[in-house]
Amino acid sequence: MTDALLQVRGLAKRYGPITIVENISFDLHRGEVLGIVGESGSGKTTIARALLRLIEPSAGSVQFAGQNLATLPARALRPLRARLQYVFQDPYSSLSPRMTVGEILTEGLRIQGIGPQAARLARARQALADVELPDDAINRYAHEFSGGQRQRIGIARALALQPEVLVADEPVSALDVSIQAQVINLLRGLQQRLGLAMLFISHDLAVVEYLCDRVMVLYLGRIMELAPSDRLYSQPAHPYTRALLAAVPQPDPARRGHRHLLAGDIPSAAAPPSGCVFRTRCPNAQPECAANVPSLREIAPGHWKACLRDDLPA
Amino acid sequence: MAARSQGPMRRALGRFASNPAALAGLAILLPLLLAVIAYPLWLHFGPNDVDLMARNAPPGAAHWLGTDGVGRDVLARLMQGGRTSLLVAVLSVSLSLAIGFVVGALAAFGDRWADSIAMRCVDLAMTLPPVILLLVLASIIGTGIGPTVWVIALLSWPVLARMVRARLLEVRERDFVIAARGMGAGTLHLLFRHGLPNAIDIMVVYATLQIANAILLEAGLSFLGLGIPPPAASWGNMMNAAQSTVVLEQYVWQWMSPGATLVLTVLAINFIGDGLRDAFDPRSGLN
To answer: What span, in angstroms and rounded, lies between the C-alpha atoms of B104 and B119?
Structure first.
């Protein structure tokens, strides 16, 4: 498709000889929610931050609004930054302890030189209303709020800039389970009402299924599978995706099938396996998996996988 | 509009106000400061008024702290000397705060090159032996208030630069700073909206403790004849008179009063500095 809002091609991040993520390519469309799932250390946050140039990507391009964000000089990048905003995982360190909520919410507008102070405050109040926090929160400090409320402030800060793309980096994993659902529903409502394109990073497969239109499965910094979420959950094609889905707790005993649980841990990024990086834990690995790096192939419209074996039973 | 609620600064001041030693320091320093600033209003002697009828006079009804060898009122010189000493201290500490913060912040928020260059300058400035540097600088750029301020400032900024850098290296990686970068913030915004507020505690503590230090340095320089030259008064050059054995033994009031005032002032400022340090320490409220 050519009308993608964000086109990522061959994005990579290396620290010296260590490759954290490699050859990440995907499109993000207007109003779409793309989920990124993977274990700890699979490079989810690295992709999100390299995408927004919060860290410098080592290779690849990120096309947005006719510009390549990956190589744009810092000065030219600045005005574009307002259009792509980030929601952090940790609601405690993501808000300055020395600023009132009003200062936090107007900071981006001030940086971008948008409006007089009165207009900025009006936008901040609107953002507070959007995340369903009371108006008088504006004069209080972040430490006076609970984790869930702080996460709402973090979301409001991103929304105050009226972005087109929202990158949410595990926005609920630091919250109590009872609060998670509230924040997830809030994000979903905002995304639909404002028509945001959203990159939603999580390791919670249930949340991703609920929220996302498409899902990207990541392992050791490589894309394993990328598919529309109903298809990914009903017909996972990659052994890793199947293992992930099998590991989701299933409350109904009748629906518990045979489970392939993965043994061992994710390998070190400093010494990745040759060929397919998943082969050391894959129940279906063959000798050829060690020799060839599987490319990401489209096996059905919109359904991509990086696995050599097409002979596995569905 | 509802009132702003208590920020971190207000809570720190609350902790400060419940520290008896710090309050004692304030109780000593504030009246002294007031007396020094307002002394022409309540003292009818000038610092250089000569009373030839009362040379080396002991403390009494006319001259509360006595007079010196040429008949000048010691109390008047003490007050004027306090103005000089405190002015030198405040100016030199302001200067070293500015240099120390900018160098430390550039090292922390700049690229690797800026960091290396700034830190090597700090290393260089810290390896110079202080007393010899003082003597050399004082003999090159001369004596007087201006040069003394510069000498003290140039000697004291590197410690602050290191502390600021260490703090800001940590602040730089905090999510709210990354968020500011993600919203397009430039170095100046990061420096003054996030760097300065999160380093203000160490700067306040450093400033108070350093003011005490600067008063002592000024006194030392003036005592050696390299600080504030006579006939201007400073606490250091008043004590210079004690180099004479006669003064030291017989005219005790001439050096005892500036000495005692100096000790009292430095002590008070150190109490305040310690109080501020405890007040800003987030762990201090817990026990």
So the answer is: 8
Determine the distance in angstroms separating the CA of A155 from the nearest CA of chain B, rounded to an integer.
Answer: 11
Look at residue B160 and give its three-state secondary structure. Answer: helix
Q: Tell me how far apart the alpha carbons of residues A152 and A160 are, in angstroms, rounded to a whole number.
A: 12
- A28 pLDDT more than 90: yes
- Total tally of structural domains belonging to chain B: 1
- Kindly state whether A107 is in contact with chain B, defined as any CB-CB distance less than 8 angstroms: yes
Residues A182 and A155 reside in one and the same domain? no
Residue B57 lies in a domain: no
Distance CA A187, CA A214 (A): 16
The pLDDT of residue B4 is 58
- Is B7 part of any domain? no
Task: Give the residue-averaged pLDDT of B184-212.
Answer: 87
B9 domain-assigned? no
A271 within a domain of the structure (yes/no): no
Cβ atoms of residues B195 and B108 within 8 Å: yes
Do A148 and A218 fall within a single domain? no
Interface of B with A (CB under 8 A): 1-9, 174-176, 178-186, 189, 193-194, 197-198
Taking contacts as CB-CB distances below 8 angstroms, the residues of chain B near A79 are 184
- CATH number of the domain within which B178 lies: 1.10.3720.10
CB contact under 8 A, B183 and A111: yes
Residues A93, B183: C-beta atoms closer than 8 Å: no
CB of B274 closer than 8 Å to CB of B202: no
Together in a domain, A59 and A21: yes
Its pTM stands at: 0.81
Residue A304 lies in a domain: no
B157-171, pLDDT tens digit by residue?
999 999 999 999 999
* Residue to substitute from A77, A92, A95, A111, interface B, most B β-carbons within 10 A: A111
Contact call for residues B45 and B75 (beta carbons, < 8 A): yes
CA distance A157 to A86: 9
pLDDT-derived band at B1 (thresholds 50, 70, 90) equals: very low
Neighbours of B270 (CB within 10 A): 17
A135 with A168, same domain: the answer is no
Query: d(Cα B178, Cα B119) in Å, to the nearest integer?
Result: 24
Closest partner CB to B179 (pick from A79, A88, A112): A88
pLDDT digits over B73-82, tens only? 888 889 988 8
**Position B47 in a domain:** no
Write out the DSSP string of A40-104.
TTSSHHHHHHHHTTSS--SEEEEEETTEETTT--HHHHHHHHTTEEEE-S-TTTTS-TTSBHHHH
Distance from CA of B94 to the nearest CA of A (A): 23
Count structural domains, chain A: 2
Collect all residues of chain B within an 8 Å Cβ-Cβ radius of residue A136: 2
Domain of A208, in residue numbers: 6-83+163-264
Strand order in the sheet with A18-28: A18-28, A6-15, A59-64, A67-68
Kindly state whether A90 is in contact with chain B, defined as any CB-CB distance less than 8 angstroms. Answer: yes
